[in-house]
């Protein structure tokens, strides 16, 4: 049977889609997991929501295309958000691509590969809602930590964001389907479950008529084998007291919240079609920190949004300095075609957008280092992810570290340890984003 290589780019939600396609291909008898150079078919599962992501996708597609001329690759297939967003333009602009597959057609990937190998190079698109959110997965990453995608699409309509156009309206999976998958993952050895969607706090509104994240989290906490349950992509307006009290009360719910706020200035947020202002956000963050002692807060910001004045940027800079988020990512605004904000007349020059983002990240680097220094001479639980043969120590993550976006804990041990186990580490040194320590005796 043909060998398949899958390269998945972008966010965890896209990664889950790739894992489902791999399971479909494996169940159809294909050999998966091949290196690109050894593959008969290469699938690039793309991200496509901002300029940088599109560039990365095209670079990966062109690199894969080189294996068609030099390697054994017979078919190059592009899936994911870039494919969904640009459709036939992908194969018109990049003739090396044999088939472009929209997200609604992911479920037919095995048939598409078969036909591509037989010479049928027709692009495949379907309704976004045809994307099956359930089904088997071949997990990428660590076998003890993975994502649970509870919904796809988004109804929030932020004016800068192309995701609703790519992924459509929000579609929640049923609580039963989510719990069944989580149970299966736990039976398979998963200990850390990371709950994701475009907006996890809106989960269930379409299916149950009201947000049901709390009910879902409580149900997930009942699953034996799961140790850490972490929630990402919450929406500030939908953070309820009940959610905070549940996170504080349930031992398995990691005291970690990812709340992309994007900005703090009321006028800018309004033009983003988001609510709130510095006052309401400050009050929300104070409430979260009061209700969940020791909570780790991650956020995401956008600088250089159309019309952002020096004063409004200075306000954001002060807000970051005063709020002292534990984790923060900041992106320069990327005008995306077919979004409302891209049509706003008062666009900010690109270099100014980038300079502002870099300024915020420099400020956050200082804050991150200071916050890490506060953890000196303390103990923390660590989920062991591996052994670093170069610096001869183990590494892993504490409850304060989400995978792929946050720091690590590097630590020495006087005895062999098992990857995937939880241990207690005494922190005896700190870096800006990482911690150093040794296994607690
Ligand atoms: S919440 Fe806003 S930024 Fe996030 S996916 Fe939805 S529309 Fe995009």
Overall description:
This protein has a 6-stranded parallel beta sheet, sandwiched between helices. A 5-stranded parallel beta sheet has the order 2-1-3-4-5, sandwiched between helices. It is built from 14 helices and 18 strands. It has helices at residues 12-27, 51-70, 81-86, 88-93, 109-117, 163-167, 175-187, 205-208, 213-221, 241-249, 266-271, 278-291, 310-323, 350-373, and strands spanning 3-8, 31-32, 41-46, 75-80, 99-100, 145-149, 151-152, 171-172, 192-196, 228-231, 253-258, 296-303, 327-332, 379-388, 393-397, 409-412, 422-430, 435-439. Helices cover 35% and strands 21% of the residues. The mean pLDDT is 97. Helix 7 (175-187) packs parallel to helix 9 (213-221). The protein folds into 3 domains: 3-130, 3-Layer(aba) Sandwich (Rossmann fold), CATH 3.40.50.12160; 145-373, pyruvate-formate lyase- activating enzyme (Alpha-Beta Horseshoe), CATH 3.80.30; 379-439, OB fold (Dihydrolipoamide Acetyltransferase, E2P) (Beta Barrel). The protein has 441 residues and is of the alpha/beta class. The structure holds iron/sulfur cluster. The site of iron/sulfur cluster has 9 residues, from helix 6. Iron/sulfur cluster is lined by residues 154, 156-158, 161, 163-164, 198-199.
């Amino acid at each position: 049977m043909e060998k398949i290589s899958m390269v998945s780019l972008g966010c965890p939600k896209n990664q889950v889609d790739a894992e489902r396609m791999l399971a479909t291909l494996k169940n159809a008898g294909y050999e998966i997991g091949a290196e690109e150079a050894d593959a008969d078919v290469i699938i690039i599962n793309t991200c496509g929501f901002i300029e940088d992501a599109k560039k990365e996708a095209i670079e990966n597609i062109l690199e894969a295309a080189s294996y068609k001329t030099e390697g054994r690759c017979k078919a190059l297939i592009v899936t994911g958000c870039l494919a969904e967003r640009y459709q036939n333009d992908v194969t018109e602009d990049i003739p090396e691509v044999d088939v472009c597959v929209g997200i609604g057609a992911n479920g037919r990937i095995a048939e598409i590969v078969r036909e591509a190998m037989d010479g049928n190079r027709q692009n495949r698109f379907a309704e976004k809602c045809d994307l099956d959110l359930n089904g088997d997965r071949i997990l990428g990453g660590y076998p003890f930590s993975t994502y649970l995608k509870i919904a796809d699409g988004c109804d929030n309509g932020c004016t800068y964001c192309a995701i609703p156009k790519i992924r459509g309206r929000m579609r929640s999976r049923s609580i039963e389907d989510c719990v069944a998958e989580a149970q299966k993952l736990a039976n398979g050895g998963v200990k850390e479950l990371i709950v994701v969607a475009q907006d996890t706090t809106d989960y269930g509104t379409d299916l149950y008529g009201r947000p049901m994240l709390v009910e879902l989290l409580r149900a997930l906490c009942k699953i034996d084998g799961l140790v850490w349950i972490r929630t990402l992509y919450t929406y500030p307006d939908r953070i309820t007291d009940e959610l905070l009290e549940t996170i504080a009360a349930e031992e398995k719910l990691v005291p970690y919240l990812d709340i992309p706020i994007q900005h703090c200035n009321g006028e800018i947020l309004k033009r983003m079609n988001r609510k709130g202002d510095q006052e309401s956000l400050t009050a929300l963050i104070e409430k979260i920190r009061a209700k969940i002692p020791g909570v780790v807060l991650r956020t995401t910001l956008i600088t250089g949004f159309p019309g952002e004045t020096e004063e409004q940027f200075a306000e954001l800079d002060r807000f970051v300095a005063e709020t002292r988020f534990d984790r923060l990512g900041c992106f320069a605004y990327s005008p995306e075609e077919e979004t409302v904000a891209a049509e706003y007349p008062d666009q900010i020059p690109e270099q100014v957008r980038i300079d502002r983002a870099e300024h915020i990240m420099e400020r956050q680097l200082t804050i991150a280092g200071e916050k890490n220094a506060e953890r000196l001479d303390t103990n923390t639980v660590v989920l062991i992810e591996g052994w670093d043969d170069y610096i001869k120590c183990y590494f892993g993550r504490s409850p304060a570290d989400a995978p792929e976006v946050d720091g690590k804990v590097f630590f020495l041990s006087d005895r062999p340890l098992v990857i995937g186990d939880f241990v207690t580490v005494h922190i005896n040194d700190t870096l800006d984003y990482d911690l150093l320590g040794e296994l607690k005796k």
